[in-house]
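Amino Acid Chain and Its Fold in Token Form
===========================================
What this section holds: a protein sequence and its matching fold, both as plain text.
Structure line: whole-number tokens from a learned vocabulary of local backbone shapes, matched to residues.
Purpose: to set a sequence beside its fold so the mapping can be learned.
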Amino acid sequence: MSGPAPDRAFGPRLPPPALIDPTRPGAAFLTSVALQLQPGWGQFLDDCRIRLAETHPLNQMSLAATAAITIDRKGRVVDVGLAVPSGNADFDRAVRDAIHDASSLPIPPIEALSDDDHVHLRWLFARDRRQAGPATAEIEHRELPLVPTIAKLTASGELARAARRCATAPDSAERTAAIERVMAGALREALASLDSSVQRAAVDAIGAAHVTALAPDVRLLVAGASDAELRAKAIRAAGALGDSDAGDSIAHQLAVDLGERQGLALAETTALVALGRTSDAVAAIEKGLPANARVPNPVALEASGPVPLGALVARVTGWLAHGDATTRLAACSALAGEASTQAIQALGRALDDPDASVRATCAAAAAETPAKALAPIAAKLVALQRDRDGAARANALIAVALADPAHLAAAAEDPRAEVRAAYWHALALRGGDPGDVHAGLRDAASEVRLAAIALATDDALLGQLAAADDAPEVRTAALVQLAHHAGRAAVTPSLLDGLAAARPASADRVRIARAWLLAR
């Protein structure tokens, strides 16, 4: 550009461009970009004002061009184009130069990225007061097909961004499939948490929601988890998922765990039955319960609960009649679900056992037995609701709800929290009018609130419990019940927002994923 024109008065300097409305999406980022672009552009306009005649084409106040600027995740300019040229080649060239002179722009926030992992800006460069200010700039979001985009984001661990992307998509089968990927991604992320309680919650959710896509991830925990409780949950989840590839490992380990690992052995027999490999479980248990054993292996005996006993019924009922308390308790567990006359008669006798733990365990076994088969011992179960032992009363309530619901005892005021919790469980099993559910939801004991949630239909109250209850398991159950009662469509926006805001690999993300996956 030539030197200043002699003997001419300069026109007034342009005032600063207008500020952007701070409530606009991306306002902070656009302001930071303007701090890079506006100084150079303002200098160019000032040079035109000072050095060129007022009538020069570059001093026409109507000149304006809209640039299309593409930057990557690090703020580097990767492409510059003119979406709307000014019609003046020198002016348009100056626009390009001003952008390239800035070279690197601020690192963009995640929410500014389009599906192609770039930020696309439309930036007005004007000769008038608008200049290159942020108020006339905008972020242009470009979308790619939803499901592949979400697959890419979840694979890279960008679950918050994936959730926000799903939140803006129109309702469709494609959107539902994409959200399902996001929720499965949240559970997969939680499996790698350093917090074992988060891992256990994730495994529970995977099994409950039948997320078969995560079966290989759960399978790794079946054999490799060092935490016994986590491993037991993984084994049960593998069974619930129908993961036949985990069957051999579970069957092999059952023979080892029947020696002394009660919780694992029970989980393994349960999983093998679910996988259609009952014969493998029976074979292992029969080896652990030889006919000539005077004192049976209590672990093998209790682990036999999920499998049909068949010819073993006579042997088990004999141990129930003559064994010590530990053996009698295990024998009660073994009879769970057995509907034969011999098994029911044995359970009925055991309901009078002098050991409270045996009475309680036999009542629990009755609760897992077909209701029609319980008629001969229904009166004893009804009487057991008044037992001096809390666990016996609690298990009797649940059994009575199935065997003789008309005689379910009122236990909402029982001094033992486990009994009050069982009462609400029993009401849910019995069906009909549960009465004042709010009393259960206000109970001081979290286990009681947890049980009462299954009967709650007040969405506002469920929302309060899901957000603020001091017990994590209550918050989870309340959110699941809210999603179930209100419906998936109603809760999807808030659940996606919540997942995007929650800490990665957190219990909050697990409960959100569980609630959405179980809702319909």
Summary: The longest helix spans residues 27-51. The longest strand covers residues 64-71. Residues 2-7 have pLDDT under 50 and may be disordered. The two ends are 69 Å apart (CA to CA).
